[in-house]
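Lecture 7 notes: from sequence to structure.
We start with the chain below.
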Amino acid sequence: MTFLPFSTIPYLCPIMDKSRPIRTILYVAFVMAGLIAGSVIYFTYNPVESVWFPKCPFLLLTGLKCPGCGSQRTIHALLHGDIQAAFRYNTLLVFSIPYIILLVCAKIVHFFYPASVFPEKIQKACIIWFYFALVILFWITRNIWDF
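Predicted structure tokens for the same chain:
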């Protein structure tokens, strides 16, 4: 007997077949377990006080902040509900979280509905280049005005 969770509703998931459901469920389970474990670790331990969190090699070598500097502290602050501190640590990450969620949703939609145009609309080259330019601009300005 085969376990096919979506076999009773074929129109909701047109690309599911007999070889894919178990792999899909395992993949989602591992990703969710990783997200939960990471959230618990970042909620429990402060990256500033713990020696187990890696330090930024770019900052250590050059003394300049990279676009990702402060991301660990930002995640810790967001998990504790301290939005003001999160903005202080890494403004770009706080503003990027909705777009990251949108990209993940696009991947899910594409997985279940490959013919959907939603993923194509938010992953256009012009949007990716705009975001890349935004990251470079953030990198430069955070080192000039120290934020």
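Points to note: Residues 45-144 form one domain. The CA atoms of residues 8 and 16 lie 11 Å apart.
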